[in-house]
Structures are given as C-alpha cells and as structure tokens.
Amino acid sequence: MAVKNVLVVGGGITGCVAAVSLAQRGVKVTLVEKAHQWYGVGHGITLQGNALKVFNLIGAYDKMAIKGQGFNELETFTAGGHQIARMPIAHAGGEDLPATMGALRSDIQTVLVDMIHDLGVDVRLGTELTGYTNNASDVTAHLSDGSNDNFDLIIAADGINSTARKMVGITHDKKSSGLGIWRVVTKRKPEMDCSGLAFGGPEYKAGYTPISEDLCYAFVLTKPQRPDNGLSDADEMRRLLEGYHGHFDFIRENLKDDDYMNFTEIEWLWAVDESWHDGRVIVTGDAVHACPPLIAQGGAQCSEDAYLLAEYVTRDGDLDDLLTQYEERRKARTDLVVRNTLALVDLEIKGGPESGQEAGKIMGMTMGAMAQPW
Ligand SMILES: Cc1cc2nc3c(=O)[nH]c(=O)nc-3n(C[C@H](O)[C@H](O)[C@H](O)COP(=O)(O)OP(=O)(O)OC[C@H]3O[C@@H](n4cnc5c(N)ncnc54)[C@H](O)[C@@H]3O)c2cc1C
To answer: What distance in angstroms lies between residue 302's CA and the mean position of ligand 1's atoms?
Structure first.
C-alpha cells in the first residue's frame, strides 16, 4: 500500500467517507475537525443514487435507509399547483438501490461518525490544520493544538471555505452563483412521496424532498440577498411561498416558527485547471468542486471522491503517480456536474418559457451520465 498512516482534515461527508474507507482498508487514520461538536442539527439532504452506491460499498446505506426515505421519481408542478409531470429518475447507484433518498443530514452524519469510532479512527474535535511541511518520505501536519505529527498523506476535505486549498497553491476561490436559498425541515403529506419542484412562480423555484415518514425538506430558490423587510425567518418563508400552491399550500400553512430553517447565499467553486495536490497533501470534496445544489450532486460527488481516493492511495505504487491518476479521473467526472449545474443556474436566472424544458434536459443528461461507471 502506498500509504499506511493518513490524516483526514474535516469531518463532513468527504472526510467521513474517506476516513471510513481508509480504515476499512487497514490504514491508520487520524481525523481532525475544527468544530467542537460533530453530531448536531442539520437540514435535509437529497442523496442521489451514486451517493447511495458509495454508502452501500462502505456498509453504511442499510443503516441510513432506516431513517431516510427512498424514492424513484420526480414530480413537477406549475406554481398554481397543477402537476406537469411525474417522471422516473435514473438509478445512478444501480437498480438495487433507490434512485434517490431524502434524509436528515444529522442522521447521515451519525451513521458515518459511529462507523468512524467503531473502526478506531483517532478523532480530534476542535482541532484545525494550520500548515504542513512535506518531507522526503512523509509529511508533517501542524495542528492548532500545537502538535506536529507525521503522516504518509494528508487528505484535506475542509469544504468550500477550505484553508488547505490555498496552502497547496490553488488560487481559485468561491464565487456567488446569483442565487439564494431558504430551507426548512417541516411536515409533509403522505402523497408528497418523491421530490417535487414548482416552476413559473414569483421566485426562481420552490421544491421539497421527503426525508422521513412525515417530514420533508422544503426550499425556495430566490435572490442571493435577504430583503430588509423586518420579517421573522418563518414569516419570510411564508411570504416567499405565497405564490406557490397545491402541496406548497400545505407546507406554508403547517410551517411552525420553530421549524429548523435558514437562508443562505449559494456559492460555487471549481478548481479545474490547478493541481489538487502538493507532495503528500491532497485537497478534495467541496474544497475543490462545490456546485450549487440544482441537481443535488454535491454530496454524491464528495462521497465518490472520498471512496475512490481511499481506493487509489491503498494501491501499490508511487504516491504522486496515484494522486495524479486520481485527480485526472475525478476532474473528468466533476467537470460535467459543475458545468451542467452552472448552466442550470443561468437558466434559473434567465427564466423564460423554454428554460424549464431546457433545465429538464440538462438534469436528465447529467443523471444519465452519473449512472455510468465511475
Ligand atoms: C444550500 C445547499 C444545499 C445542498 N443540498 C444538497 C443536496 O440536497 N444533496 C447533495 O448531495 N448535496 C447538497 N449540497 C452540497 C453538499 O452539502 C456538499 O457538497 C457537501 O456537504 C460537502 O461536503 P465536504 O465534506 O466536502 O465539505 P463540508 O460539509 O463543508 O465539510 C468540511 C468540514 O471541514 C471542517 N473544517 C474546515 N476547515 C477545517 C480545518 N482547517 N481543520 C479541520 N476541519 C476543518 C468543517 O468544520 C466541516 O465540518 C448542498 C449545498 C448547499 C450549499
């Protein structure tokens, strides 16, 4: 094996899947996460089949599926609530798995964190990577707790606000997409049993994904800045949902002031033309390819990254060659996702009568490509 002792930086989807996959292959893993608390609250997440495939490969899917809600279709509506279509979604993880699963992020995280602990990973919460030194045969990680430990490899999975990205020499930085999103975890009706999207309303789009027997994760895609109208979070979401009907009437009418909700500007980043690694340090996940969540492929790409990276660096061979091969393979796949997602962002902002149909084509083509072997 090219590596036997690895530091993973960041305990999001990328870092957790990397830590589990490496530990399962017999690598000694240390994971540093700057947050002091790891389990915690979180929004809903739509996990496409290719994410489920990775979770299945590491033995996490069955545990996640107990709480999540699997489904195979996508329903589209007019803003007035009339159904436009109910269409199948490509099974990007194979026919044995649902095409998609909605879940609470905290439930997904809990399964991965429990596995990390069970596998004996050395977890250091409240600890950051502050720098590193590449040596002849290993790399020294400089950590915020004052320690300077040596590893065969550092995998930096520190998200869109990555500091490791700059350390390895990547100059790309995150950019605004021109979109903002309100999200809430709230009640759903039984017939809201797959993802639903409403087009043509006053905002860019409204949608929901079922995440359990009785809950959904609902969202409104809107302008990137929150208006200064003095409304509470819940009242602002109610206001934005006023122009959407059908199931969205139910969401609006049942929204509680203390439902978990927030607004965020959507940003993106694509470090396509720069190396993701410097000696024995590689940056991966959202830290190098954060895409707006318009095809719900962010988490899927991150989990593929992490699983494949563990597979590459546990092969025999020269580590630099293996990291270069990994990077080339991942860049080809994530390029399609990031570029198509940015095309969808343009269509959202441009609007017009043809944009819904064009967006459907791009989404279908991307999901079809994700169903191909990686
Ligand atoms: C609004 C929104 C909705 C989305 N919806 C979906 C969806 O439905 N489906 C989907 O698949 N994807 C979705 N995504 C994308 C998905 O959330 C991301 O692609 C994915 O979570 C990124 O995982 P990551 O582990 O790379 O980064 P992160 O989740 O950001 O994790 C990085 C971790 O590193 C830690 N960290 C940072 N710096 C340091 C440091 N120096 N030292 C130690 N630790 C550090 C952070 O605390 C964090 O825990 C969405 C994204 C957004 C913005």
So the answer is: 9
Q: For residue 15, which phi and psi values (nearest 5 degrees)?
A: -65, -40
**Residues in contact with ligand 1 (CB, 6 Å cut-off):** 9-15, 32-35, 45-47, 51, 128-129, 157-159, 163, 181, 264, 266, 285-286, 293, 296-300, 302
Average pLDDT, the chain: 96
Å from CA of 13 to ligand 1 middle: 7
- Distance from the alpha carbon of residue 298 to the mean position of ligand 1, in angstroms: 8
Asked whether the predicted pLDDT for residue 22 surpasses 80, the reply is yes
- pLDDT of res. 221: 97
Q: How far apart are the first and last CA of the chain?
A: 22
Indicate the pairing of strand 215-222 with strand 153-156: unpaired
Residues in CB range of 51: below 8 A, 6 or more apart: 93, 299, 300, 303, 304
Chain-centroid distance of CA 319 in Å reads: 27
Q: Cα–Cα distance between 30 and 235 in angstroms, integer? A: 44
Query: Quick check: 267 pLDDT over 90?
Result: yes
User: Which of ligand 1's atoms lies nearest the C-alpha of 10?
Assistant: 34
Give me the mean pLDDT over the 147-161 stretch: 98
Q: How far is the CA of 299 from the centre of ligand 1 (A)?
A: 8
Query: Tokens 């869109």 map to which residue?
Result: 160
Q: What is the pTM of this model?
A: 0.97
Q: What percent of the chain has pLDDT over 90?
A: 93
Domain 5-46+102-174+268-351 is in which class? Answer: alpha beta
Vertex 56, ends 368 and 312: CA angle to 5°? 80
pLDDT at residue number 41: 63
Q: Which atom of ligand 1 is nearest to the CA of 290?
A: 19
Mean pLDDT, residues 268-285: 97
Grade residue 75 by pLDDT with cuts at 50, 70 and 90: very high
Domain ranges in the chain are: 5-46+102-174+268-351
Closest ligand 1 atom number to CA of residue 300: 11
244 φ, ψ to 5°?
-125, 135
